[in-house]
Amino acid sequence: MKFFIDTANIDQIREVASWGIVDGVTTNPTLVAREGKAFEPTIKEICALLPDKPISAEVVSVDAEGIIREARELAQWAPNVVVKIPFIKEGMKALHVVAQEGIRVNCTLIFSAAAGLIAAKAGAAFISPFVGRLDDIGHDGMELVRQLVPIMDNYDFDTEIIVASVRTPAHVIEAAMLGADIATVPFDVLDKLFNHPMRDLGLANFLKDWEKYRAAQG
User: What is the domain count for the chain?
Assistant: First the structure.
């Protein structure tokens, strides 16, 4: 499974890249605004930092004409830009057009298997089921991933599933167990994947034993 980092923070992206596990980045206007930076320069900086990785940047228009115009502009910023388009009817009209032009699209705000199926048929390169937001309203968000994985496999769609709105390490592990292509994960959750109390205890014991050995050697 691929790991994307869900952030617009350059320092976080650099740090995760240094771990050797980052396969791409997803952003949105909210994440960019949180950094207090302008949208276009931020996206271009991320694209330059990871020039061989897909970087998702989201449109803000909600009509097909506006989405198409934005998608074409975003795609000109860097060759590795993936355009995020929301799952709405106007979005699907636009997705169908720009996908035929060779623009890769990440269809976002997927909350049902039907939505994922429609987006894949329209030509999305990626679909992003939002598991955490489904959990927030009392649904099992990962059940959507359980549905989407066989649907994509049954019909050989050239569409990758990005498990999004990831809130916990458990989401990441279950996504991998279910066979999702990608999990896009906030920095704090990626950091938590390293944590385990037995690891900390084991390391402390190893170091303590090493110090005893060194002391005994004089």
Answer: 1
